[in-house]
Amino acid sequence: PARNVKILQSGSGVVPYVSERHNHIHLLVMLEMPRRGICSLDTVKIPDTGAVCRRNHSLRVKIYRYKTDFPVAVLLDGIWSEVLGKRSGRHIVVRCQKVDMVVALTHIGYNAGARLQDLDIARRSEDIDIIIGGHSHTLINPEAEGGPQCRIANEVGDTILVVQTGSLGKYVGEIDIDLETMAAKYRLIAVDSRLDSRIDEGAAAILEPYRHDVDSILGIKIGRAAAPFVKQDFGLVNLITDIVYAAGSDLNGAPVDMAVMNKGGIRCNMPSGDITRGLIMQMLPFDNRIVLLDIKGSDLAAGFDVMAGRLGDGVSNATAVYDPETRKCSSILIGGKPLDPDKTYRIATIDYLATGGDYMKSFKNGVETGRSNEILYEDVIKYLGMSPYKGKKIKPDTKVRMTPR
Fold first, then answer.
1. For the chain, which ranges sit under pLDDT 50?
2. From CA 73, how far away is CA 91, in angstroms rounded?
3. How far are the Cα atoms of 318, 352, 365 from residue 397, in angstroms, in the given order?
4. Sign of the four-CA dihedral 331, 337, 342, 346
5. Which H or E run contains 363?
6. Terminal CA-to-CA distance of the chain, rounded, Å?
7. Strand pairing partners for 26?
8. What is the Cα Rg of the chain in Å?
9. Which residues contact 391 (CB under 8 A, 6 or more apart)?
Protein backbone atom coordinates (compact mmCIF):
# COMPACT_ATOMS: atom_id res chain seq x y z
CA PRO A 1 0.00 0.00 0.00
CA ALA A 2 1.01 3.57 -0.60
CA ARG A 3 2.63 5.48 2.24
CA ASN A 4 0.77 8.67 1.55
CA VAL A 5 -2.04 10.17 -0.46
CA LYS A 6 -2.03 13.56 -2.07
CA ILE A 7 -5.16 15.43 -3.05
CA LEU A 8 -4.83 18.30 -5.50
CA GLN A 9 -7.62 20.86 -5.55
CA SER A 10 -8.04 23.70 -8.04
CA GLY A 11 -10.54 26.54 -8.08
CA SER A 12 -12.69 24.57 -10.52
CA GLY A 13 -12.50 21.03 -9.15
CA VAL A 14 -10.83 18.33 -7.11
CA VAL A 15 -8.41 15.73 -8.42
CA PRO A 16 -7.59 12.98 -5.90
CA TYR A 17 -4.65 10.73 -6.62
CA VAL A 18 -2.45 8.23 -4.80
CA SER A 19 1.30 8.40 -5.26
CA GLU A 20 1.70 4.59 -5.43
CA ARG A 21 -0.63 1.59 -5.35
CA HIS A 22 -4.10 2.22 -3.98
CA ASN A 23 -5.61 -1.28 -3.79
CA HIS A 24 -5.35 -1.47 0.02
CA ILE A 25 -6.18 2.11 0.86
CA HIS A 26 -9.65 2.62 2.31
CA LEU A 27 -10.36 6.22 1.40
CA LEU A 28 -14.03 7.14 1.61
CA VAL A 29 -15.07 10.17 -0.38
CA MET A 30 -18.49 11.78 0.06
CA LEU A 31 -19.84 13.81 -2.86
CA GLU A 32 -22.68 16.29 -2.85
CA MET A 33 -25.54 14.63 -4.75
CA PRO A 34 -26.64 16.71 -7.74
CA ARG A 35 -30.11 16.93 -9.19
CA ARG A 36 -29.31 14.20 -11.69
CA GLY A 37 -26.86 11.33 -11.88
CA ILE A 38 -25.98 8.32 -14.02
CA CYS A 39 -25.38 5.09 -12.10
CA SER A 40 -24.29 1.59 -13.10
CA LEU A 41 -22.37 -1.25 -11.51
CA ASP A 42 -19.20 -0.35 -13.36
CA THR A 43 -19.34 3.43 -13.42
CA VAL A 44 -20.84 6.22 -11.38
CA LYS A 45 -20.79 9.52 -13.22
CA ILE A 46 -22.14 12.71 -11.68
CA PRO A 47 -22.54 15.26 -14.48
CA ASP A 48 -22.83 18.33 -12.26
CA THR A 49 -19.45 17.71 -10.65
CA GLY A 50 -17.66 15.79 -13.39
CA ALA A 51 -16.70 13.18 -10.80
CA VAL A 52 -16.26 9.67 -12.12
CA CYS A 53 -15.60 6.45 -10.18
CA ARG A 54 -14.82 3.37 -12.27
CA ARG A 55 -14.73 -0.26 -11.27
CA ASN A 56 -11.14 -1.32 -10.67
CA HIS A 57 -10.24 -4.78 -9.36
CA SER A 58 -12.37 -5.21 -6.24
CA LEU A 59 -13.64 -1.63 -6.24
CA ARG A 60 -17.40 -1.35 -5.98
CA VAL A 61 -19.30 1.90 -6.02
CA LYS A 62 -22.88 2.60 -5.09
CA ILE A 63 -24.70 5.87 -4.56
CA TYR A 64 -27.38 6.25 -1.91
CA ARG A 65 -29.81 9.17 -1.80
CA TYR A 66 -31.04 10.60 1.49
CA LYS A 67 -33.51 13.41 2.13
CA THR A 68 -30.95 15.75 3.62
CA ASP A 69 -29.31 18.97 2.50
CA PHE A 70 -26.06 17.13 1.77
CA PRO A 71 -27.24 13.65 0.68
CA VAL A 72 -24.59 11.12 -0.18
CA ALA A 73 -23.06 7.90 0.89
CA VAL A 74 -20.57 6.00 -1.26
CA LEU A 75 -19.78 2.28 -1.03
CA LEU A 76 -16.17 1.35 -1.76
CA ASP A 77 -14.92 -2.23 -1.40
CA GLY A 78 -17.82 -3.10 0.85
CA ILE A 79 -17.06 -0.15 3.14
CA TRP A 80 -20.18 1.86 3.75
CA SER A 81 -20.96 5.21 5.22
CA GLU A 82 -24.24 6.83 6.11
CA VAL A 83 -24.67 10.57 6.30
CA LEU A 84 -27.43 11.59 8.66
CA GLY A 85 -28.36 15.26 8.50
CA LYS A 86 -31.11 16.79 10.58
CA ARG A 87 -31.87 20.47 10.34
CA SER A 88 -32.94 20.57 13.97
CA GLY A 89 -30.25 18.21 15.23
CA ARG A 90 -26.92 19.13 16.73
CA HIS A 91 -24.82 16.38 15.20
CA ILE A 92 -23.83 15.46 11.71
CA VAL A 93 -22.76 11.84 12.05
CA VAL A 94 -20.78 9.78 9.61
CA ARG A 95 -20.78 6.10 10.50
CA CYS A 96 -17.92 4.21 8.93
CA GLN A 97 -16.55 0.70 9.10
CA LYS A 98 -12.98 -0.18 8.12
CA VAL A 99 -12.32 3.34 6.90
CA ASP A 100 -9.05 5.12 7.62
CA MET A 101 -10.15 8.60 6.68
CA VAL A 102 -13.30 10.44 5.60
CA VAL A 103 -12.95 13.26 3.06
CA ALA A 104 -16.05 15.32 2.26
CA LEU A 105 -16.23 17.12 -1.08
CA THR A 106 -18.83 19.87 -0.73
CA HIS A 107 -20.25 22.74 -2.73
CA ILE A 108 -22.15 24.69 -0.08
CA GLY A 109 -19.74 27.48 0.87
CA TYR A 110 -17.31 28.10 3.74
CA ASN A 111 -19.22 30.55 5.94
CA ALA A 112 -21.25 32.94 3.82
CA GLY A 113 -24.81 32.89 5.08
CA ALA A 114 -27.46 31.42 7.33
CA ARG A 115 -27.68 28.11 5.46
CA LEU A 116 -25.69 24.99 6.29
CA GLN A 117 -22.04 25.66 5.45
CA ASP A 118 -18.69 23.86 5.70
CA LEU A 119 -17.99 25.35 9.13
CA ASP A 120 -21.33 24.01 10.39
CA ILE A 121 -20.53 20.52 9.11
CA ALA A 122 -17.04 20.66 10.64
CA ARG A 123 -18.20 21.84 14.07
CA ARG A 124 -21.16 19.46 14.33
CA SER A 125 -19.52 16.34 12.91
CA GLU A 126 -17.80 13.51 14.73
CA ASP A 127 -16.02 11.43 12.09
CA ILE A 128 -15.16 13.65 9.10
CA ASP A 129 -11.42 14.32 8.78
CA ILE A 130 -11.15 16.71 5.80
CA ILE A 131 -13.64 18.99 4.03
CA ILE A 132 -12.71 20.19 0.56
CA GLY A 133 -15.21 22.93 -0.24
CA GLY A 134 -16.44 25.15 -3.01
CA HIS A 135 -19.23 27.56 -3.98
CA SER A 136 -18.16 30.55 -1.84
CA HIS A 137 -14.77 30.84 -3.63
CA THR A 138 -13.08 31.34 -0.27
CA LEU A 139 -9.29 31.50 -0.32
CA ILE A 140 -8.15 29.58 2.76
CA ASN A 141 -4.44 30.19 3.18
CA PRO A 142 -2.89 28.28 6.10
CA GLU A 143 -0.03 30.81 6.27
CA ALA A 144 -2.19 33.96 6.34
CA GLU A 145 -2.92 35.60 9.67
CA GLY A 146 -6.45 36.72 10.40
CA GLY A 147 -7.97 34.99 7.38
CA PRO A 148 -10.39 32.05 7.18
CA GLN A 149 -9.25 29.19 9.42
CA CYS A 150 -8.36 25.79 7.98
CA ARG A 151 -8.26 23.89 11.30
CA ILE A 152 -11.68 23.60 12.95
CA ALA A 153 -12.60 21.72 16.14
CA ASN A 154 -15.47 19.25 15.71
CA GLU A 155 -18.17 18.15 18.15
CA VAL A 156 -15.81 15.86 20.11
CA GLY A 157 -12.81 18.20 20.13
CA ASP A 158 -10.86 16.70 17.23
CA THR A 159 -9.43 18.96 14.53
CA ILE A 160 -10.85 18.92 11.00
CA LEU A 161 -9.01 20.31 7.99
CA VAL A 162 -11.29 22.61 5.96
CA VAL A 163 -9.91 23.93 2.66
CA GLN A 164 -10.81 25.98 -0.42
CA THR A 165 -8.60 27.54 -3.06
CA GLY A 166 -10.47 30.69 -4.05
CA SER A 167 -11.38 31.19 -7.71
CA LEU A 168 -10.09 32.02 -11.19
CA GLY A 169 -7.43 29.30 -11.07
CA LYS A 170 -4.97 31.49 -9.17
CA TYR A 171 -4.03 28.72 -6.74
CA VAL A 172 -3.86 24.95 -6.57
CA GLY A 173 -4.28 23.38 -3.15
CA GLU A 174 -2.27 20.34 -2.09
CA ILE A 175 -3.19 18.06 0.82
CA ASP A 176 -0.49 15.58 1.81
CA ILE A 177 -1.81 12.71 3.97
CA ASP A 178 0.56 10.44 5.87
CA LEU A 179 -1.26 7.11 6.04
CA GLU A 180 0.81 5.91 8.99
CA THR A 181 -0.05 8.80 11.31
CA MET A 182 -3.12 10.06 9.36
CA ALA A 183 -1.72 13.59 9.70
CA ALA A 184 -2.71 15.94 6.88
CA LYS A 185 -0.68 18.91 5.64
CA TYR A 186 -2.20 21.60 3.44
CA ARG A 187 -0.60 24.30 1.32
CA LEU A 188 -1.47 26.61 -1.55
CA ILE A 189 0.59 26.65 -4.75
CA ALA A 190 0.37 29.91 -6.70
CA VAL A 191 -0.33 29.62 -10.43
CA ASP A 192 1.61 32.60 -11.75
CA SER A 193 4.15 33.75 -14.33
CA ARG A 194 6.91 31.57 -12.90
CA LEU A 195 5.14 28.62 -14.56
CA ASP A 196 4.91 30.23 -18.01
CA SER A 197 8.15 28.73 -19.22
CA ARG A 198 7.22 25.20 -18.09
CA ILE A 199 5.59 24.00 -21.29
CA ASP A 200 4.99 20.31 -21.79
CA GLU A 201 6.22 19.72 -25.36
CA GLY A 202 4.08 16.62 -25.81
CA ALA A 203 0.90 18.39 -24.78
CA ALA A 204 1.79 21.42 -26.92
CA ALA A 205 2.24 19.18 -29.97
CA ILE A 206 -1.21 17.65 -29.45
CA LEU A 207 -2.85 21.08 -29.20
CA GLU A 208 -1.00 22.73 -32.09
CA PRO A 209 -3.22 21.43 -34.97
CA TYR A 210 -6.27 22.95 -33.28
CA ARG A 211 -4.75 26.23 -32.14
CA HIS A 212 -5.32 28.26 -35.29
CA ASP A 213 -8.98 27.27 -35.74
CA VAL A 214 -9.79 27.87 -32.07
CA ASP A 215 -7.97 31.21 -31.93
CA SER A 216 -9.65 32.37 -35.15
CA ILE A 217 -13.06 31.90 -33.49
CA LEU A 218 -12.30 33.02 -29.95
CA GLY A 219 -10.30 36.05 -31.11
CA ILE A 220 -13.18 37.68 -33.00
CA LYS A 221 -13.60 41.27 -31.76
CA ILE A 222 -17.16 42.24 -30.84
CA GLY A 223 -16.68 45.54 -29.00
CA ARG A 224 -14.48 47.83 -26.93
CA ALA A 225 -14.44 48.51 -23.20
CA ALA A 226 -13.48 52.02 -22.15
CA ALA A 227 -12.47 50.82 -18.68
CA PRO A 228 -12.21 47.52 -16.81
CA PHE A 229 -15.50 45.82 -15.92
CA VAL A 230 -15.27 43.93 -12.62
CA LYS A 231 -17.79 42.05 -10.52
CA GLN A 232 -16.69 43.64 -7.27
CA ASP A 233 -18.03 47.12 -8.12
CA PHE A 234 -21.07 45.70 -9.96
CA GLY A 235 -20.02 47.28 -13.28
CA LEU A 236 -19.83 43.88 -14.99
CA VAL A 237 -22.86 42.44 -13.15
CA ASN A 238 -24.99 45.43 -14.23
CA LEU A 239 -23.88 45.07 -17.86
CA ILE A 240 -24.80 41.39 -18.10
CA THR A 241 -28.09 41.89 -16.22
CA ASP A 242 -29.08 44.80 -18.48
CA ILE A 243 -28.45 42.57 -21.51
CA VAL A 244 -30.60 39.84 -19.94
CA TYR A 245 -33.32 42.49 -19.51
CA ALA A 246 -33.03 43.62 -23.16
CA ALA A 247 -32.96 40.07 -24.53
CA GLY A 248 -35.87 39.06 -22.31
CA SER A 249 -37.91 42.06 -23.44
CA ASP A 250 -37.29 41.18 -27.10
CA LEU A 251 -38.21 37.57 -26.40
CA ASN A 252 -41.41 38.77 -24.70
CA GLY A 253 -42.31 41.23 -27.45
CA ALA A 254 -42.70 43.96 -24.82
CA PRO A 255 -40.61 45.21 -21.89
CA VAL A 256 -40.45 42.76 -19.00
CA ASP A 257 -40.89 43.99 -15.46
CA MET A 258 -37.28 43.36 -14.45
CA ALA A 259 -34.29 41.03 -14.85
CA VAL A 260 -32.27 38.99 -12.38
CA MET A 261 -28.75 37.58 -12.85
CA ASN A 262 -26.57 35.97 -10.19
CA LYS A 263 -23.06 37.33 -9.97
CA GLY A 264 -21.77 33.81 -9.28
CA GLY A 265 -22.59 32.89 -12.88
CA ILE A 266 -20.06 35.46 -14.13
CA ARG A 267 -16.69 33.74 -13.91
CA CYS A 268 -14.11 36.39 -14.86
CA ASN A 269 -13.72 40.13 -15.18
CA MET A 270 -13.44 42.09 -18.44
CA PRO A 271 -10.34 44.27 -18.96
CA SER A 272 -10.38 47.52 -20.89
CA GLY A 273 -9.74 47.35 -24.60
CA ASP A 274 -11.00 44.84 -27.15
CA ILE A 275 -13.89 42.59 -26.13
CA THR A 276 -13.54 39.24 -27.86
CA ARG A 277 -15.88 36.33 -28.37
CA GLY A 278 -13.53 34.09 -26.39
CA LEU A 279 -13.59 36.48 -23.42
CA ILE A 280 -17.42 36.40 -23.23
CA MET A 281 -17.42 32.59 -23.51
CA GLN A 282 -14.87 32.41 -20.69
CA MET A 283 -16.90 34.89 -18.63
CA LEU A 284 -20.19 32.96 -19.06
CA PRO A 285 -19.09 29.32 -19.55
CA PHE A 286 -22.30 27.57 -18.49
CA ASP A 287 -25.09 26.26 -20.73
CA ASN A 288 -27.60 28.70 -19.26
CA ARG A 289 -30.37 30.24 -21.33
CA ILE A 290 -32.43 33.38 -20.80
CA VAL A 291 -36.01 32.55 -19.81
CA LEU A 292 -39.18 34.48 -19.09
CA LEU A 293 -40.75 33.73 -15.72
CA ASP A 294 -44.18 34.70 -14.42
CA ILE A 295 -43.75 34.90 -10.66
CA LYS A 296 -45.88 36.15 -7.78
CA GLY A 297 -44.57 39.24 -5.97
CA SER A 298 -44.21 37.40 -2.66
CA ASP A 299 -41.98 34.77 -4.30
CA LEU A 300 -39.99 37.49 -6.04
CA ALA A 301 -39.52 39.25 -2.69
CA ALA A 302 -38.22 35.99 -1.18
CA GLY A 303 -35.67 35.84 -4.00
CA PHE A 304 -34.57 39.39 -3.23
CA ASP A 305 -33.93 38.34 0.39
CA VAL A 306 -31.74 35.48 -0.83
CA MET A 307 -29.76 37.92 -2.98
CA ALA A 308 -29.46 40.31 -0.02
CA GLY A 309 -27.97 37.42 1.94
CA ARG A 310 -25.00 37.48 -0.42
CA LEU A 311 -24.82 41.30 -0.44
CA GLY A 312 -26.67 41.77 -3.70
CA ASP A 313 -26.90 40.24 -7.15
CA GLY A 314 -27.64 41.62 -10.57
CA VAL A 315 -31.03 43.31 -11.06
CA SER A 316 -32.22 45.49 -13.94
CA ASN A 317 -35.18 47.91 -13.85
CA ALA A 318 -35.29 47.31 -10.10
CA THR A 319 -33.64 48.47 -6.88
CA ALA A 320 -33.66 47.27 -3.30
CA VAL A 321 -32.49 48.33 0.15
CA TYR A 322 -31.59 45.67 2.71
CA ASP A 323 -30.57 45.44 6.36
CA PRO A 324 -26.86 44.44 6.46
CA GLU A 325 -27.38 42.59 9.76
CA THR A 326 -30.52 40.59 8.99
CA ARG A 327 -29.79 40.63 5.25
CA LYS A 328 -33.50 41.08 4.54
CA CYS A 329 -34.89 43.68 2.14
CA SER A 330 -36.76 46.62 3.65
CA SER A 331 -37.59 48.21 0.29
CA ILE A 332 -37.97 46.77 -3.21
CA LEU A 333 -38.86 48.88 -6.25
CA ILE A 334 -39.82 47.33 -9.60
CA GLY A 335 -39.87 49.89 -12.39
CA GLY A 336 -39.81 52.60 -9.72
CA LYS A 337 -42.90 51.24 -7.91
CA PRO A 338 -43.00 49.30 -4.63
CA LEU A 339 -43.18 45.54 -5.09
CA ASP A 340 -46.74 44.23 -4.76
CA PRO A 341 -46.69 40.78 -3.07
CA ASP A 342 -50.01 39.82 -4.72
CA LYS A 343 -49.11 40.89 -8.25
CA THR A 344 -47.71 38.51 -10.88
CA TYR A 345 -44.54 39.87 -12.47
CA ARG A 346 -42.97 38.78 -15.73
CA ILE A 347 -39.21 38.78 -15.29
CA ALA A 348 -36.20 37.76 -17.38
CA THR A 349 -33.59 35.57 -15.76
CA ILE A 350 -31.57 32.45 -16.57
CA ASP A 351 -32.91 28.91 -16.40
CA TYR A 352 -30.49 28.01 -13.60
CA LEU A 353 -32.14 30.54 -11.28
CA ALA A 354 -35.65 29.83 -12.57
CA THR A 355 -35.30 26.22 -11.41
CA GLY A 356 -34.15 27.24 -7.93
CA GLY A 357 -30.40 27.30 -8.42
CA ASP A 358 -28.14 29.37 -6.15
CA TYR A 359 -30.71 29.00 -3.33
CA MET A 360 -33.45 30.84 -5.28
CA LYS A 361 -36.00 28.24 -4.21
CA SER A 362 -38.97 30.60 -4.46
CA PHE A 363 -38.33 31.00 -8.20
CA LYS A 364 -39.42 27.38 -8.63
CA ASN A 365 -42.96 28.58 -7.91
CA GLY A 366 -42.89 30.68 -11.08
CA VAL A 367 -44.11 29.59 -14.52
CA GLU A 368 -41.75 29.69 -17.51
CA THR A 369 -43.43 31.47 -20.43
CA GLY A 370 -40.53 31.77 -22.88
CA ARG A 371 -36.97 30.61 -23.52
CA SER A 372 -34.11 31.81 -25.71
CA ASN A 373 -32.84 29.43 -28.36
CA GLU A 374 -29.27 30.55 -27.66
CA ILE A 375 -26.86 29.88 -24.83
CA LEU A 376 -26.42 32.96 -22.61
CA TYR A 377 -22.99 33.90 -23.95
CA GLU A 378 -24.34 33.88 -27.52
CA ASP A 379 -27.09 36.31 -26.54
CA VAL A 380 -24.56 38.57 -24.78
CA ILE A 381 -22.26 38.51 -27.81
CA LYS A 382 -25.22 39.38 -30.05
CA TYR A 383 -26.42 42.30 -27.93
CA LEU A 384 -22.92 43.76 -27.47
CA GLY A 385 -22.95 44.18 -31.26
CA MET A 386 -26.24 46.10 -31.16
CA SER A 387 -27.40 49.50 -29.94
CA PRO A 388 -26.58 51.04 -27.50
CA TYR A 389 -23.21 49.26 -27.46
CA LYS A 390 -22.35 48.95 -31.17
CA GLY A 391 -19.52 51.20 -32.34
CA LYS A 392 -18.95 52.70 -28.89
CA LYS A 393 -16.44 52.26 -26.12
CA ILE A 394 -18.59 50.75 -23.39
CA LYS A 395 -18.35 52.40 -19.98
CA PRO A 396 -19.18 50.47 -16.80
CA ASP A 397 -22.24 51.49 -14.79
CA THR A 398 -21.08 50.89 -11.23
CA LYS A 399 -24.22 52.13 -9.48
CA VAL A 400 -25.15 49.54 -6.85
CA ARG A 401 -28.80 48.59 -7.29
CA MET A 402 -29.13 46.54 -4.11
CA THR A 403 -27.78 48.69 -1.27
CA PRO A 404 -27.44 48.29 2.50
CA ARG A 405 -29.35 50.87 4.49
1. 1-91, 93, 95-97
2. 17
3. 14, 25, 32
4. negative
5. none
6. 59
7. none
8. 23
9. none
